[in-house]
Write a structure and sequence with these properties.
A hairpin with a 2-residue loop joins strand 3 and strand 4. The protein contains 2 helices and 4 strands. By secondary structure, it is of the alpha+beta class. A 4-stranded mixed beta sheet has the order 2-1-3-4, with no helix packed on it.
Length: 64
């Protein structure tokens, strides 16, 4: 599986089980961490349609 990205805050939380599953299967993925300070601007930009995270992107398909 290629083209996997996990986006969440730079802390342990709701995305941790996703990261753990990917790690347990030795999947190469990009871990994008967003800081609390940057979140309001990113949220206002419309990048996240449901204004929530974590977001997992697999081969261009985004899920949250």
């Amino acid at each position: 599986m290629s083209g996997v990205r996990v986006t969440y805050f730079n802390l342990y939380g709701r995305a941790e089980f996703i990261r753990a599953m990917l790690e347990s299967r030795s999947v190469n993925y990009t871990n994008e961490e967003i800081t609390q300070e940057d979140w309001p601007a990113i949220k206002a930009s419309g990048r996240f349609p449901f204004n929530s995270m974590p977001e997992v992107e697999i081969n261009g398909v985004k899920m949250n």
